[in-house]
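Margin note: ligand = NAP.
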Amino acid sequence: MDCYGIIGYPLGHTFSPGYFTKKFADEGIDAVYKSFPLEQITELPELLQQQTELRGLNVTIPYKEAVLQYLDETDAAAKAVGAVNCIHITDGNTKGYNTDIIGFEQSLLPLLQPHHRRALVLGTGGAAKAVAYVLNKLGIDYRKVSRSGQPEVVSYDDLTPELISAHTLIINTTPLGMYPDIYSFPPIPYDAIGAEHLLYDLIYNPAETRFLSLGKANGATVKNGMEMLHLQAEASWQIWTGHYNPTV
Ligand code: NAP
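Resulting structure:
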């Protein structure tokens, strides 16, 4: 039987095993999805040798970047972002993809209005790089906002009401507000947010973070990360079954 799975560490509560196990049952797909908690990414070659029925893997924290050096090939978009969250295994050959890019783009596109020409990306981690890749692809000018104080990024202290007004797309890629830390939110001047704004939070638990509820209270359109999560999982399945047509 074909086997799919996820590598990461630890793998306590992860979305993908439940999603794929239900999908296989609902759609009558003769396959299993397993969790492979690897304490070190150096264990990956041995896993691939032992699990000969493996056709695909998802990759989660902390290996999305470190896994690249273990792959035979990497898709161009994943290489550009420097992170892989999906591996297709065919006849022992491994090729890495980044389906966060696909999930973010597909969930953002229906919400975009012509005036969403300038964006702020809160956070500079792995997910922010996937978001930046999509914004570049769509021709949306963006600034990264960070606590770091590096010269090329905006600091939270620099976020004036004018800057917020001028950037009508704001994307939270920080963990601020994620369960169980549900009362936190990115420190931005919410009073400057209005009906033209689209606030997108990559967090999906809770469904409405403080970032989103504060934006909504000022008339903004809001979007959480749940659709992105489902789309990135579905894109993995398209890749593993050979139905993926890269447009990124
Ligand atoms: P990450 O690599 O740890 O990056 C998060 C970034 O947020 C950090 O680089 C940091 O940027 C900033 N940050 C961290 N702690 C902060 C704090 N206390 N205050 C302000 N900023 C803080 O994480 P990631 O992998 O990019 O994931 C980020 C979020 O996206 C997580 O909540 C994750 O669950 C979510 N996500 C969702 C999906 C989806 O499908 N919906 C997919 C991927 C990720 P600075 O140091 O520059 O400030």
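The first helix runs from residue 15 to 26.
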